[in-house]
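Figure 6 in text form: structure in, sequence out.
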């Protein structure tokens, strides 16, 4: 049986057609049974082309009697040779054409005339064999499908990124939202559809298809064995006041039932205020209201058949780098989860530390930052000027400081957001950075051929890969850049040092670059385009030069500017002068 024939859709009753009458006595008994259960246990089967009911006429009529507006449906192709029609009435013959004709004309057959069979693995069984258990509450089936603003929905449990991404990918690729939210009508607490909720948030949707229900009319299914005694009151409390429950603590539906709402209808219809006069209410607005960061054509690298574009993350206001995005989103999510404390500890090579400290300062929170010995001395000055406590550790890579940070944070009651493991790092780029690049290119009538970026935590390039591979498939090549063996390039590192998100997405190629090659990339752009970019951006330029074809649309992600790296530039220029 094709996969689509196992999907359950919530279809409006008034769209379906009957081909036979209902038996009054059986209908009365079934209506009473369903009303007593407060759920519909099984979907009905309907022809996908004509909306004619093939099995479940009595359930259909029972729901009408109970005031329901929708019914769970499994659609099948009635023309398939795997579906046969027989009859319960002796030797009487009946055809599929007669079934459809009876439904379309309203000249219905008597009760229990047709008997539909389906062949599965060469076994012919009654078509009800595909009607899997769904247990959909009548409260849901009686509810109108509404379009609700996401900001009015309150979540009672946390959601994992892993569970969300399949929904995000499906909505993005099909441009249809097929999973509704089920929301408690009085409080706005989300009861079901958590993955869809977060997927819509990551897609920057402002609204969601929603069924609003009275929680007293439904049964919560407890999914976590440790929460067997979870009550409805506890769920509402978690949604209204917190703390949030663990992921997959409860649900309403045994099976996700699908609707069909175009994604475009859930996005904002308002023209985005781009703050053209550059007036902001506070410095945090200066960050997220200032997006998108610019996408600029690099004419020195472009040709008649090749255009090269740079995504300039140095336009973020705090660290002048891409790390402002994750600093803001990690703090934002920690606040929403009530996990933010009065002191933040973090391992950083500079930019994340500046971003976190700057944003923490606006909230009255202190920071303590751990920096590898290999990072330029100027970083201490920047961070201390912002008020951070700086600890230099005898390690070569930032990631090697994590265990020390974890230990100290636990011992001293501080929060450790951990940019290397925090999914906010991935989500902020999925929600904003990747989509910005796509929309900016679309405004020019372009689609990217190749996107190149450095690998540090792997957050921004992994999210970009996931977005573009999901939307455009293999038409977009994703290239990562890492330092060559035994080389140090601030902000990027080698894959084997451990990257959380890199291995969950697809990169077409990873290119090794030396620090000297990275500096040469910086100098090339500076002297041709007038932009002094950072070392990891210089590495991206060098990688581009190594793989570029004569044709294509290339996007180079430049994480920061070059003004923090005077020591590395001085070393290179001094060496270059001596050699000449």
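Output sequence:
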């Amino acid at each position: 049986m094709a996969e689509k024939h196992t999907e359950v859709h919530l279809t409006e009753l008034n769209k379906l057609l009957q081909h036979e009458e209902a038996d009054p006595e059986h209908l009365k008994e079934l209506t009473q049974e369903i009303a007593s259960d407060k759920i519909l246990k099984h979907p009905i089967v309907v022809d996908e082309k004509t909306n004619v009911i093939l099995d479940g006429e009595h359930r259909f009529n029972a729901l009408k009697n109970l005031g329901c507006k929708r019914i769970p449906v499994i659609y099948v192709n009635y023309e398939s040779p795997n579906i046969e029609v027989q009859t319960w009435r002796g030797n009487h013959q009946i055809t599929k054409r007669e079934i459809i004709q009876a439904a379309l004309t309203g000249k219905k057959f008597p009760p229990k005339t047709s008997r539909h069979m389906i062949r599965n693995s060469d076994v012919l069984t009654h078509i009800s064999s595909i009607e899997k258990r769904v247990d959909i509450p009548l409260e849901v089936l009686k509810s109108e499908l509404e379009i609700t603003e996401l900001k009015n929905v309150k979540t009672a449990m946390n959601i994992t990124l892993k569970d969300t991404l399949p929904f995000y990918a499906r909505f993005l690729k099909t441009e249809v939202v097929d999973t509704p939210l089920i929301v408690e009508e009085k409080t706005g607490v989300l009861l079901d559809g958590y993955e869809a909720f977060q997927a819509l948030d990551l897609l920057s949707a402002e609204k969601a298809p929603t069924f609003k229900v009275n929680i007293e009319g439904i049964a919560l299914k407890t999914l976590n064995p440790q929460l067997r005694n979870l009550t409805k009151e506890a769920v509402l409390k978690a949604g209204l006041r917190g703390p949030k429950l663990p992921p997959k603590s409860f649900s309403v539906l045994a099976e996700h039932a699908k609707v069909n709402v175009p994604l475009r209808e859930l996005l904002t219809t308002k023209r985005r205020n781009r703050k053209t006069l550059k007036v902001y209410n506070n410095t945090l607005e200066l960050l997220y209201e200032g997006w998108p960061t610019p996408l600029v054509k690099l004419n020195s690298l472009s040709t008649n058949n090749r255009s090269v574009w740079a995504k300039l993350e140095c336009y973020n206001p705090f660290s002048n780098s891409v790390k402002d995005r994750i600093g803001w989103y990690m703090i934002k999510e920690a606040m929403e989860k009530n996990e933010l404390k009065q002191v933040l500890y973090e391992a950083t090579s500079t930019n994340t530390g500046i971003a976190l400290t700057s944003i923490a300062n606006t909230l009255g929170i202190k920071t303590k930052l751990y920096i590898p010995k290999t990072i330029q001395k100027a970083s201490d000055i920047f961070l201390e000027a912002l008020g951070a406590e700086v600890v230099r550790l005898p390690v070569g890579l930032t990631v090697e400081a994590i265990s020390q940070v974890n230990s100290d944070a636990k011992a001293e009651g501080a929060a450790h957001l951990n940019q290397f493991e925090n999914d906010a790092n991935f989500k902020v780029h999925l929600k904003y950075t990747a989509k910005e690049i796509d929309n900016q290119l679309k405004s020019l009538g372009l689609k990217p051929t190749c996107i190149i970026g450095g690998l540090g935590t792997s957050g921004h390039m992994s999210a970009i890969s996931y977005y573009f591979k999901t939307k455009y498939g293999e038409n977009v090549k994703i290239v990562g850049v890492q330092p060559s063996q035994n080389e140090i390039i601030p902000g990027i590192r080698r894959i084997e040092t451990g990257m959380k998100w890199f291995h969950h997405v697809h990169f077409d190629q990873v290119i090794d670059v030396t620090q000297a090659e990275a500096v040469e990339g910086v100098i090339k752009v500076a002297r041709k385009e007038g932009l002094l970019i950072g070392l990891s951006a210089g590495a991206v330029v060098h990688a581009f030069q190594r793989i570029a074809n004569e044709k294509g649309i290339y996007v180079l992600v430049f994480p920061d500017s070059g003004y923090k790296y005077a020591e590395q530039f001085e070393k290179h220029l001094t060496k270059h002068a001596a050699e000449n």
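Caption detail: The first helix runs from residue 24 to 37.
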